[in-house]
Amino acid sequence: MKILKFGGTSVANAINIKLVKNILQKNEGTKIGVVVSALGGITDLLLVTLELASKQNVNYRNSFNEIEERHLSTIKKLFSVTTQSSVLGKVKAELNDLETLLEGSYLIGEATPQLSDKIVSYGEILSSFIISEYLKVEGLDVSLKSGRELIITDEAFGKAAVDFERTNSICENYFNSTVHKITVVPGFVSSSHSGKATTLGRGGSDYSAAILTAAINAETLEIWTDVSGMYTANPKLVKQAKCVSYISYEEAMELSHFGAKVLYPPTIQPVLQKSIPIIIKNTFAPEDEGTKITKNNNDQGKTVRGISHVNNITLLSLEGPGMVGIPGISKRFFETMSLEGISIVMITQASSEHSICVGISDIDAEQAVAAVNKAFTYEITTNKIKKVIIESDLAIIALVGDNMKSHQGLSGKMFSTLGRNNVNIRAIAQGASERNISAVIRKEDVKKSLNTLHETFFEKNIKQLNLFVMGVGNVGAKFLNQIKKQRKYLQEELKLNVRVIGISNSRTMAFNENGISLDDWQNFLADGQKANPNKFIKIVKELNYRNSVFVDNTASDIIASSYSSYLNSSISVVTCNKIACSSEYSNYKELKRLAKQFNAPFLFETNVGAGLPIIDTLKHLIASGDKIKKIQAVLSGSLNFVFNNFDNNTSFHDVVKQAQEEGYTEPDPTIDLSGVDVMRKILILARESGYELEIDAIENDSFLPEESLKTSSNEQFFESLKKYENDFQKLYQNAVQKGSKLKYVAQFEDGKAKVGLQEIPENHDFYNLDGSDNIVLFYTERYANQPMIIKGAGAGADVTASGIFADVIRIGNF
Ligand code: ADP
Ligand code: ASP
Ligand code: MG
């Protein structure tokens, strides 16, 4: 014999029930017991309806109508017109009884646990009836046997304890004597010795099935659900989770105890005693192999088998000097909890005996506090023990595996993984069996923690980076395109999975939690919500992804001022925007400090020389003990373009205009022409070299006339360039006469920086600098006479985008 259990989603509607029938038809040879849950969602709905009724809220009727409608429509879709009337009649009669009970609760404004069990049982009573009738109509040899007759319990309503002696003998007798091939049994429901309706706890249909399986010594228990087995983590929260083929009873028990809902925790016990295997199968993909739960997990190599979590946890701690060395305090504490019927999910006790700390469900917190404070009234009033302290809205996350005990360093790996992602750990416990390590964390951190731990323990070296990209103009668009092209290489060669989760321009912003398609991001963004940088930050933080990276491709000061809010949530920042790093030194320093404190890199390679590895090289020089003595550089791609194209055949105005149109200048060209942009760059290089410098301290010998510098719009600026054309021509002539070229040079020496236009003679390193190229000469202690030279394209969207890309990859390797 076999027992098959079908969960709520598997029987949620007519289409799914037909799938169940197909599975049962394949099993025709053997005698089987089929345990069914209520139609998916009905149990919750019944509880909500009762809650409304007992609060005398008339809306309970709408809720009841919904329950009625779900059942009647399922029947109508499942049965032909000729066969449905008797089923409808019976179900309507049951629903009438249910309505009467609800009305009673509404009238007296009360719901006892006993009434609640009676009402909530209707879900399974109705589903089992409908399904058994349908199977009969389909020609299967079926009988219906109520769980209330088969499973006998005490009267702990809501989660009754089974009387196994009675239950086993009733089940044995029934299944031995039944002549039908299939017996349909409603899960979850049971009755007390005196015949009152009881239930086995939420998710209890699994348990009903296990009880029957053990009682009749069936050969297997099949749990048919909506996933293809037990996964390394909840597949709804961790996309990369993998189905586990084999797992031991103990591992399955630990995982379900810590929240793997796919199996109700008490389910294992009855079958374990008889070593009957459990197989978890997917109703919607019956061909999938599923997970086999047996004595041994059949997989020696693996240490961690799964990661699970329980939400809505409260930490309750009792502490005080009066606890040290006094025997019996723990006993009294746990006795109190047990007498209140409060189950303890996790225990941690400090080795100093100074405190006891336990994790319980949020819903039990109030009751637990009152009970413990009462039990220790004497100690509290005499200051030996402090009043109970609680902290709610937490979650427990647990690593589980039989082989964990023989491996060192797992907890270190677990906690450093969480720490790196800014997950604050409130308490830790390791079961004596060393089959689990669990940690209490904030509820908001659950998804991030599951994913990051999964990455560490199951996804051999693949690291996921989650990008939030602000600014998708020229540079941003190129950047997204480069990611698209390189994605496969990054995955295969660098083991990096780069996903873009959010994008924004100045008009709209859009997010996709599973990653935005880079084939069609333009339309996706256009359909997004109104752009708002503060809301953008809020969403990034709420999503709370591991390895989050904020990428700023704008030139906006508002965006630059938001970096600290990202960094202090452990979100890395990559930017080509120079404003933050060239603002007050204190701000630059603070951003660097936050990056260190929160383990979130702050990278801005493209601030100087676009994609050229200038800052990175500088960092390596300094890290290896070198000292910067002098920097000489041509750092403005825009000014280089301008002076390389300007001669006596062109006008200065036209060349600047062309530079602007071709994207070589900032949108406001005065930022480049006045030298401010170069000042920012040399300032950043000086700071990165370890010098404390402010922008005001940089000498700027401007070649522009006062009037041009003071203009307040682009039109005015260009007008002024026309007016002073002669002056510009003079600058050019002077240089040419000496055989020199004009270059805008930045210099840093002895702690001082200056920028300005210079006439560069033919033998100088700067003389042959083409187009928009940049060049930097680093004179250091090691490179004292011959400088280290970095030269190449220093402006343009493509190279800037690739510099940003390189920073993102640096974070991936961090
Ligand atoms: P049923 O209604 O069939 O009893 P449940 O909703 O009770 O189904 O359990 C199945 C669900 O358990 C899955 O849809 C999944 O979201 C959740 N789950 C949590 N952890 C795990 C895990 N480690 N492996 C598989 N499923 C899990
Ligand atoms: N229907 C019950 C519940 O939702 C029992 C079950 O489905 O396992 O809790
Ligand atoms: Mg379930």
TrEMBL record:
- PROSITE patterns the record matches: ACT (PS51671), ASPARTOKINASE (PS00324), HOMOSER_DHGENASE (PS01042)
Which parts of the sequence belong to the ACT domain?
399-477
Indicate what this protein is called per its UniProt record: Bifunctional aspartate kinase/homoserine dehydrogenase I
- Outline what the protein does: Bifunctional aspartate kinase and homoserine dehydrogenase that catalyzes the first and the third steps toward the synthesis of lysine, methionine and threonine from aspartate.
Question: What family classification does the UniProt entry report for this protein?
Answer: In the N-terminal section; belongs to the aspartokinase family. In the C-terminal section; belongs to the homoserine dehydrogenase family.
Pathway field of the UniProt record reads: Amino-acid biosynthesis; L-threonine biosynthesis; L-threonine from L-aspartate: step 3/5; Amino-acid biosynthesis; L-lysine biosynthesis via DAP pathway; (S)-tetrahydrodipicolinate from L-aspartate: step 1/4; Amino-acid biosynthesis; L-methionine biosynthesis via de novo pathway; L-homoserine from L-aspartate: step 1/3; Amino-acid biosynthesis; L-methionine biosynthesis via de novo pathway; L-homoserine from L-aspartate: step 3/3
Which Pfam family, giving just one, matches this sequence?
AA_kinase
- Molecular-function annotations in GO: aspartate kinase activity; homoserine dehydrogenase activity
Cofactor(s) needed, names only, are:
a metal cation
- Alphabetized UniProt keyword annotations: Amino-acid biosynthesis, ATP-binding, Kinase, Lysine biosynthesis, Metal-binding, Methionine biosynthesis, Multifunctional enzyme, NAD, NADP, Nucleotide-binding, Oxidoreductase, Sodium, Threonine biosynthesis, Transferase
Q: Classify the source by domain of life.
A: Bacteria
Which E.C. number(s) belong to this protein?
A: 1.1.1.3, 2.7.2.4
- Is Repeat among this UniProt entry's keywords? no
Q: How does it assemble?
A: Homotetramer.
Coiled-coil stretches, from where to where? none
**What SUPFAM superfamilies does this protein map onto?**
ACT-like (SSF55021), Carbamate kinase-like (SSF53633), Glyceraldehyde-3-phosphate dehydrogenase-like, C-terminal domain (SSF55347), NAD(P)-binding Rossmann-fold domains (SSF51735)
Q: Which reaction does it catalyse?
A: L-aspartate + ATP = 4-phospho-L-aspartate + ADP; L-homoserine + NADP(+) = L-aspartate 4-semialdehyde + NADPH + H(+)
